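Protein modeling request. Please complete all fields; requests missing the sequence field cannot be processed.
Requester role: graduate student
Desired output: 3D structure, token encoding
Chains: 1
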Amino acid sequence: MSSALVFLLVLFAALCHATWSAIVKKSNNGLAMMAITSVVEIIVFLPLIFTVPFPSTTLWIFIAATTIIHGFYRYSVIVSYKFGDLSFVYPIARGGSCLIIAIVSLFIIKENITALGIIGISITSIGLFIIAFSSAQKFNSKAFFIAITTSILIAGYTILDGIAVNLSANAFTFIFWMLLLNGVPMLIYGIISKNGIRLTKSYRVLDGVVAGICAIISYGLVVWSFQFIKVAYVSSIREMSIVLAAVISLFILKEKEAVGRIIPSIIIVLGVTILYFEIT
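Delivered output (280 residues):
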């Protein structure tokens, strides 16, 4: 598989993630959007799991672990709506996760990340941090704690998924089962919570369905790409979603504050461009 083609597919995944983020952000009920996303994942992948070999015992450990971590991650996104500015929390979470993944890949997994790769990852993370702190009116310690917690969760499930998809005899065995189950915790929460899908007038089902399709394409492509490009590189390349989200915010959602993200977005593009030349 051509590295350039995989790179382009990860960029497409980033676009899908940015679209998902925009839908959830625009919705009056993010929890309902998360729950509907989970329903879409179940509908799509329940039949598909019968087309692949059954997971091994080892693979089940990874599937269970990533399902739990994904549940906490999606919950942290909901919490960030309540207790912190998402435009502050999310870029720190994504930038911090890039650095954590790179460090773990270098010193624990022992992946061969080059100096140029480290520079690309670092520049991408710096761009993300600039977006976060330029959007903050004042430092919010609670929001910062949420951001750091979220970054650890993102790094956790990304590293686990990268290892699992490469351990699996059939990559789609892990991908299908992981995407089937990873939204179940949030679906259960969305059903039992009085602020979830019970508030039928606070969301549109169609929006949730579109969000679900975008989520599937987005993370499905990312995990698939771990077979061909190092996890640390993919995790940074997919942060082009922040740049694309800024474009969506500026030109579609008409958010004036998105203008302030132009320069840091250019920095992120620079970092991702460096990674492109590194992998190709």
